[in-house]
Design goal:
With about 1500 residues, the chain is mainly β. The protein is about 10% helix and about 40% strand. The protein has ten helices and 99 strands. A hairpin with a 5-residue loop joins strand 54 and strand 55. The longest helix is centred in the N-terminal third of the chain and has 49 residues.
């Protein structure tokens, strides 16, 4: 067997991989003395080398620091005294440090010797993310001294480390000699020489490989020694030591806590021992404990102790909330000393078998005076039944009694708790339920107090005299407010299937009285509102609504109420619908498990495609063959990679992952590939050897030799593979023989000295700096028999490049055995995983590459290649490595560009990943470019450029680049002739620069008629020069032509104060800026010049106009919400004396209130706008400084636009159609803010337009539009609508006149028609009677009236409600059924009284009263008392009226006024009032005019 080559570092050092437990890398030697001496000598050599590298010329003392001879003598005296005291202190500190260092080293040596005794053989390394085995440490140094930051990084592939200062990359070339970056065997360092104060910053090292990145940070503080001495006053005394702060101690951590496991309800203690220098009893170290980067504070759940050489954390009451990564951080002289390890807390035994675990992380949010929102995380489930819901419990602080908040289980991990008492403190807990029973209760939440958060916002602090503060409430500045305002911003803040939470803002103003809220709901679109908290006096602006009907959308509104009353309703919410609870995340993606340690596995996975507010992940593990899953973590983990600890060494596991959110757990991911729990590597990453090569195949055989090829190891170890070793053996033998003692760097080898006809086996080993790796598996037996086939042999070394989601490029090498004739082409075959091979090219390609397209992203493919010659198709190659059609994260393509400084045309690629040994290999048409005079290659870090020297058509083709020692970073770009021509033009412009112009020469007319000529350059330096040339004559800056420029904006301009007809011509600007130059011209002749000249003259006249009163904005119109049309204009430069007049068609309009020009805006309101308001309107403005006029013509299109605007407002405010019955028929009315016949409307019956007629009359008033159906019949039944149309939209209002609505309306119409007929024909007094009559005694009184009725009415006279019987003294006559009279002869005072006449027939009647006053002769007539009617004088007569005036029938008996036998008249029915013409229609047919919107 071949001798293995092992690097010397591999023989002397051993390192251990570190994860959560942060094991420190140490070096072990056989004897303690040799270790100390070698360490000391190495330290001295390194110190000498660093000092020599950082040496600089001697420092020269500046003049301002030089001292006089007297000062020097005094300084030396003081320094000597102080130096003696300081020297003794420094010696004591040095002795303590040496003693501590010796103690620590002895402990480390003993421990590492014990570990070496139990060392196991190294195993093949697997891919792992970066990790800092030794992190950066902070440093404090003096000015002008060097400092070295270093760290040790593990991970595979080997991580790339970048250094940053204050977040910006450190570039050693930016300040030559300042920075030095080194990287050897995994140890990375940054050396800063001769530090200055400005070097004080936070430095970070970022390690990155294909599996992630990690950062370590440290702070460097640079102190200035001179300042310290100058600020001290020395009086020859030794200064005493100041108090030692804990951060001044030197701390070394010894025994550290590891990954720990606890059980819910138990307790656990995490501790670290340490050595502290100086160890002072009164100055304990400063220790901080963190859980998942959150600082822990001592309390009943956390106990922290520091002292006695240890720091400990005790968790006496474990819960799953305590699970996480715990970190101990000790503050030391050099920064911090840290250690981290993970604590796992599993579920306690459930009280009921099969019950779920307890919920986790119960917290209260959105705290109000009577409401909180409780949220939690669901537990992990493996063998338990699914959770059906949760119960939330609460208890008041100080009480031990828990009360359940919800009657039925809630299915989401949030629940709104209301009905709390304001000012009381509460704790909450949650229990989970499944089909088996109830879980244990969760850990109770932190204490929360039910307070109104808005109260603090309503407090204001006012400073008085800068000393005192006065706190006032917003109520004090709101004034005296009784009724509160309406709440605002009502919305649903939480929406779930079982409930929603309404939220709103309190009213403003709210008043001083306490307020509460009332909530109403309505099914969207119905307008029917229902109170939902009638029994709850709600004080918080939050309220949960339960039991909403599924499938319906609801709206909500809120009222504020206090002791004075209820506010207006808030605006309604938008439609809200309870959601289906299908909100769990989708399952996580691919799960990959890799080896970590002998009891842990590193698991990583792809996040779910639909996260839906992800909380974290649960990871489960199962031993192969057991079919039982156990949880790996018991608290949702937020990241997509996790180290599973506590596994059984040697067992084989599979893993799965579930995503968690408020709805619960997602579906399980697919299981990972099985993995055996074994350590990944037993030594440091930098010392790992390569894995085993594979895929050994035969390329050719001549009967005495065999040429073989193989594939690279899947794991190359910690460094680049530099050697391969081949062994062979006879297939019948067990003894292996070395083939090559000298290593070969290629993956092909010709093995000579073979016997023809014999079968041989081969194996290959790979080597790197760490040594030779494990050998490959033996190849299949290969027969040494000469190939004589005429077809070619197999191609080999198949490699996929430029892998993307839908394509890749396959490369291969030509067969070693070509057959009987030359190879003429190749055929590529491809197979998707699980499918058979099929060719990709029907015609063989002559080159050795092929771009394969049409791939499915994420699918796995393999390839074979067959060579073709004149004899036929040769043997297929071995299948390629499986290729996943997916681009590497961060993959970039080749960029084609031109250097902005040099004009060079280049191709560039920035690699997404790179290693220390990576190289950029450029190719043209997939042939490597070596020594080519046409191109040069420049590489800096991750960026590589291929620069063309003198590009032409010979450079056209496909250029590609491959980055070696990466996971396949590669790209290509095809340079075409069109692209090359474009780049050549751009290159020429860069090499022959011009001043780039952002805007060419242009003009602008300014106020006062000034004309500005200007252009703008993209860049303009302060040294730029320029010239303005007008009509071939240079123009210089003057009073009339002001020329200027602005370097910042790049603007060059010339302003001409007076632009005249003489300025017609050509304008040119010439610009020179260094080597660059440019010019731009503008031609102003003909119509172009006339346009500019006209605009300049206009601006000049406008300037003159604006010197006096003028219109800043000319007349325009607008329509108010009440449909009033306003003619509006704005005026400027006015004064009180300025006159303003309105005119229409040259006739002045005089307003009741004169226009107020001082307000700046004048308006002419036109109410009830219609066609009569068309005309020519004019506004005139004048005073002693000038005058101005604005006109506005309301006609044509302007009139139509105004009507359309009115129609828009009217249509928006239109009410639904209202039914009104009349004696003539049925009327449909639509109320609106304003209606005029000019508004375009259309009435429709059953979608047929109605025209106005005797049967269907259409009209309207200012407040409504109506349609009258005269004498309705069955034909008029149906659906009626009105359309109100503006310019762009129509507004439709409808009424369904059918069914019961028509029946009721028709009956009401008949009733009103009958009532109108009765009113028309009833008995009544037509005229002739006064209200009051005054008459002298002994005169004759005649009361005569005309009556009417059909049929003729009956007439009865009364006095003081007693019927009057006709006598000689009082005669009653009734002639022609039309004239009735009462004549009283010789009236006496006894005849005074209230007389009345009752006229009636079968349709009704009327009762009219007359007051008669009789006075004696010689008395003053009494003043008549006016009643409801106007009193009319009655002509006096001593004679009875003639029959023609008051005809009396002969047979009428003589009545007597004093007769007591006359009965009191009793009307058969009450007489209706004269003003009542028809009864009011029923309420169901008429509604009041709706309020205007």
């Amino acid at each position: 067997m071949a001798t293995k080559v092992m690097h010397f570092n591999q023989k002397k050092h051993v390192s251990h991989f570190k994860h959560h437990s942060s094991q420190t890398t140490k070096h072990v030697v056989k004897e303690t003395s040799s270790r100390k001496s070698s360490s000391k000598s190495a330290h001295q050599v390194q110190h000498a080398q660093a000092t020599e590298a950082m040496a600089e010329p001697a420092y020269t003392v500046p003049a301002f620091r030089q001292r006089s001879p007297d000062d020097v003598e005094e300084y030396q005296r003081v320094t000597s005294n102080v130096g003696k005291g300081l020297a003794s202190i420094q010696e004591e500190l040095h002795r303590m440090r040496v003693a501590t260092k010796t103690q620590v080293e002895n402990i480390a040596i003993k421990r590492e010797v014990q570990e070496m005794m139990h060392k196991v053989p190294m195993r093949t390394e697997t891919n792992t993310p970066p990790d800092f085995l030794v992190a950066l440490r902070s440093h404090t140094v003096w000015e002008k001294t060097p400092v070295k930051l270093f760290c040790t990084v593990g991970g595979h592939p080997r991580p790339i480390v970048k250094w940053y200062k204050g977040g910006k990359p450190v570039d050693p070339l930016s300040v030559p000699g300042k920075y030095k970056i080194e990287s050897k065997y995994g140890v990375h360092s940054l050396i800063i020489s001769r530090c200055v104060v400005s070097d004080t910053a936070e430095y970070s090292a970022v390690a990155t490989n294909s599996h992630g990145s990690v950062t370590s940070k440290a702070t460097v503080i640079v102190k200035r020694a001179g300042g310290a001495y100058e600020s001290c006053q020395l009086f020859g005394q030794v200064p005493y030591l100041t108090k030692i702060h804990p951060s001044k101690l030197e701390i070394t951590l010894l025994d550290k806590f590891g990954v720990s496991f606890g059980t819910e309800g138990g307790s656990i203690r995490l501790a670290c021992t340490m050595v502290v220098v100086p160890d002072l009893p009164n100055v304990p170290p400063l220790a901080e404990w963190y859980r998942d980067d959150k600082l822990l504070k001592p309390g009943k759940l956390v106990e922290i102790k520091v002292g006695g050489g240890s720091a400990s954390l005790n968790l006496p009451h474990l819960a799953k909330d305590d699970e996480g990564l715990y970190t101990l951080r000790m503050w030391t002289k050099d920064g911090t000393a840290e250690h981290s390890a993970y604590l796992f807390v599993k579920d306690a035994v459930p009280s009921v078998a099969g019950a779920p675990g307890a919920p986790i992380s119960v917290k209260a949010f959105d705290i109000n005076s009577d409401y909180v929102l409780v949220a939690w995380k669901p537990p992990n489930l493996t063998k338990e039944a699914p959770i059906t819901g949760y119960f939330v419990d609460k208890r008041e602080s100080g009480s031990t009694t828990w009360s359940q908040c919800n009657d039925s289980p809630v299915k989401v991990c949030k629940y709104p708790v209301h009905g709390l008492s304001a000012g009381h403190a509460y704790h909450f807990r949650v229990r989970a339920v499944n089909s088996a029973g109830m879980s244990r209760a969760s850990r109770e939440s932190d204490k929360v107090t039910a307070l109104d958060p808005a109260e603090r916002e309503r407090l204001q602090v006012i400073q008085l005299d800068g000393k005192h503060e006065v706190v006032i409430k917003a109520d004090d500045v709101e004034g005296y407010v009784t009724l509160p305002g309406a709440p605002t911003d009502v919305h649903a803040s939480e929406i779930f299937k079982s409930y929603i939470v309404l939220s709103w803002n309190p009213p403003s103003p709210r008043g001083r009285a306490p307020i509460w809220y009332l909530i109403e709901k309505s099914v969207a679109g119905t307008g029917a509102w229902q109170r939902i908290n009638a029994a709850v006096k709600l004080q918080s602006p939050r309220y949960p609504v339960f039991d909403l009907e599924a499938g319906k959308k609801f709206q909500f509104r809120v009222y504020s109420e206090n002791l004075y009353g209820v506010s207006e309703a808030s605006g309604p919410t938008g439609p809200v619908e309870t959601l289906d609870e299908h909100g769990v995340p989708s399952a996580p993606g691919q799960v990959v498990a890799t080896r970590n340690t002998k009891s842990s596995v590193f698991v990583q996975w792809d996040p779910p495609k639909h996260a839906n507010k992800l909380m974290g992940y649960y990871i489960d593990a199962s031993v192969i063959g057991s079919k039982e899953w156990s949880p790996c973590n018991h608290k949702p983990y937020k990241h997509t990679r996790f180290v599973v600890h506590g596994l059984t060494p040697g067992e084989t596991y599979v893993f799965r992952v579930q995503a968690v959110n408020v709805y619960g757990l997602s579906e399980e991911s697919q299981e990972s590939s099985p993995i055996s729990v074994e350590p990944a590597i037993e030594r440091g990453v930098e010392y790992a050897t390569p894995g085993a090569p594979h895929g050994i195949t035969m390329l050719s055989c001549d009967g005495a030799s065999i040429t073989i090829a193989w594939k690279s190891p899947k794991h190359r170890g910690g460094s680049k593979i530099t050697a391969y070793y081949v062994d062979k053996r006879d297939a019948d033998s067990l003894t292996w023989q070395e083939v090559n003692t000298a290593p070969t760097q290629t993956r092909t080898y010709k093995v000579d000295g073979l016997t023809e006809g014999t079968f041989y086996e081969f194996k290959v080993q790979a080597g790197n700096l760490a040594g030779v790796g494990v050998p490959s598996a033996p190849s299949l037996p290969l027969k040494c028999e000469a190939w004589t086939a005429p077809e070619p042999g197999p191609a080999y070394d198949l490699a996929a490049s430029e892998v993307r989601g839908d394509s890749l490029v396959l490369l291969w090498k030509a067969p070693v055995y070509i057959g009987a004739s030359a190879i003429t082409g190749y055929i590529v075959e491809m197979a998707k995983k699980g499918h058979s091979y099929h060719p990709q090219n029907e015609v063989p390609v002559t080159h050795r590459y092929l771009r394969v397209t049409g791939l499915e992203e994420g699918a796995v493919y393999t390839f074979k290649v067959k060579a073709v010659n004149a004899e036929g198709v040769g043997k297929a190659s071995e299948p390629s490595e499986p290729v996943v059609a997916r681009a590497l994260p961060g993959t970039q393509e080749i960029q084609l560009g031109v250097d902005e400084d040099t004009g060079d045309i280049f191709l560039s690629l920035e690699a997404c990943e790179i290693s220390e040994t990576s190289k950029f290999v450029w190719s043209k048409n997939y042939k490597e470019i070596t020594d080519c005079p046409r191109v040069t290659v420049e590489t800096k870090g991750k960026l590589s450029k291929l620069i063309f020297v003198n590009p032409d058509v010979n450079d056209l083709g496909a250029f590609s680049v491959i980055v070696t020692d990466t996971d396949g970073v590669s790209a290509s770009h095809t340079l075409t002739e069109d692209a090359l021509n474009t780049l050549l033009e751009l290159s020429y412009n860069i090499r022959h620069p011009i001043v780039p112009l952002k805007h060419h020469l242009n003009y602008e007319v300014l106020e006062k008629g000034h004309v500005r000529f200007w252009l703008q350059c993209l860049k303009l330096s302060s040294a730029a020069t320029y010239r303005f040339i007008v009509n071939d004559k240079e123009v210089t800056s003057s009073e009339s032509n002001k020329i200027s420029h602005d370097v910042k904006t790049g603007v060059i301009q010339m302003v001409m104060d007076h632009f005249t007809k003489l300025n017609e011509g050509t304008y040119t600007v010439q610009v020179h800026d260094g080597r660059a130059k440019n010019q731009s011209s503008l031609v102003l002749v003909g119509n172009v010049f006339k346009t500019v000249y006209k605009e300049a003259e206009f601006q000049r006249s406008e300037h003159i106009r604006k010197q006096g009163p003028h219109f800043a904005e000319y007349l325009s119109y607008k329509v108010d919400d009440d449909c009033t049309v306003l003619l509006v204009c704005k005026v400027a430069n006015v004064k009180k004396e300025t006159a303003f007049h309105w005119f229409k068609d040259d006739e002045e309009i005089v307003l009741e209130t004169p226009p107020n020009v001082m307000s700046g805006t004048v308006a002419l309101p036109i109410t009830m706008f219609s066609r009569k308001d068309q005309g020519h309107y004019k506004a005139k403005l004048s005073d002693d400084k000038g005058k101005d006029t604005s006109v506005f013509d309301i006609s044509g299109q302007v009139f139509d636009d105004i009507i359309n605007d009115i129609a828009h407002i009217a249509g928006s405010s239109a009410s639904e159609l209202v039914l009104q019955c009349t004696p003539e028929g049925i009327r449909l009315q639509c109320y609106m803010k304003y209606y005029t016949e000019e508004i375009r409307t259309a009435w429709l019956h059953k979608d047929t337009k109605i025209s106005s007629s005797e049967k269907m009359r259409i009209a309207g008033t200012a407040e409504m539009a109506w349609m009258q159906i005269r004498d309705p019949t069955e034909k008029e039944k149906g659906h009626y609508s009105i359309q109100i149309m503006d310019a762009t939209k129509s507004y439709t209002r409808t009424f369904d006149l059918s069914g019961q609505a028509y029946t009721d309306a028709y009956e009401e119409y008949l009733r009103l028609k009958a009532a109108a007929f009765a009113e028309k024909n009833r008995g009544r007094v037509v005229g002739g009677l006064p209200d009051v009559v005054t008459i002298m005694e002994l005169k004759t009184l005649s009361l005569t009236c005309t009556v009417w009725g059909d049929p003729s009415p009956e007439v009865t006279w009364f006095k003081n409600e007693q019927e009057v019987v006709s006598t000689e003294h009082a005669k009653i006559t009734f002639e022609a059924n039309k004239y009735s009279s009462l004549t009283i002869n010789n009236v006496t005072p006894e005849d005074s009284g209230k007389y009345s006449i009752n006229v009636r027939n079968k349709y009704g009647g009327e009762f009219v009263e007359i007051t008669v006053s009789v006075y004696k002769q010689g008395e003053t007539p009494p003043e008549p008392k006016l009643g409801g009617r106007q009193a009319t004088p009655v002509p006096l007569s001593s004679k009875a009226p003639t029959p023609a005036q008051t005809p009396t029938p002969a047979q009428t008996p003589t009545p007597s006024l004093r007769s007591s036998k006359s009965p009191t008249p009793t009307p058969k029915s009450p007489t209706p009032s004269r003003s009542l013409k028809s009864p009011s229609p029923a309420r169901s047919f008429k509604s009041p005019t709706p309020p205007r919107k």
